[in-house]
Amino acid sequence: MLVVEDEMLVAMSIEDTLLAAGMQIVGLAPTVDRALQLLNDATKIDVVVLDMNLQGHSGLPVADACYQQSIPFLVLSGYGTSALLGTSHTAPVLSKPFSNSVLVEALDAVLEQKNGEASSSV
């Protein structure tokens, strides 16, 4: 799992929550460039947690890369469901602030859907 979040305290809190839930973190990326680098370099990323506003820049290039690599992603946004307006992407959106349990439940749902699609295409 890749966590793309520019606020380091928030990123570390997400990382702690996901590790406590038994999930593996490939890396933390505070910028679009770092996220794209990790997406290109990492051997296995099963899902991305994506803040759509990264230091004043849109996270859309990361969403595009996830889409191109068939990696599901969960959007974190202070702007609610409007985070993906004007794009062709469909992804669950978790509005900030959110609780740790809601984050874990949302990621579990994304992973279940991904695993369900993988097993139905075999």
TrEMBL record:
Q: What is the lineage of its organism?
A: Bacteria, Pseudomonadati, Pseudomonadota, Alphaproteobacteria, Hyphomicrobiales
Q: Which SUPFAM superfamilies match?
A: CheY-like (SSF52172)
> Where does the secretion signal sit in this chain?
none
Record field: transmembrane: none
How is this protein named in the record?
A: Response regulator
Residues carrying 4-aspartylphosphate: D51
- On the tree of life, the source organism's domain of life is Bacteria
InterPro entries (UniProt xref): Bact_response_regulator (IPR050595), CheY-like_superfamily (IPR011006), Sig_transdc_resp-reg_receiver (IPR001789)
Question: What are the record keywords, sorted?
Answer: Phosphoprotein, Plasmid
Name all Response regulatory domain ranges.
Answer: 1-111
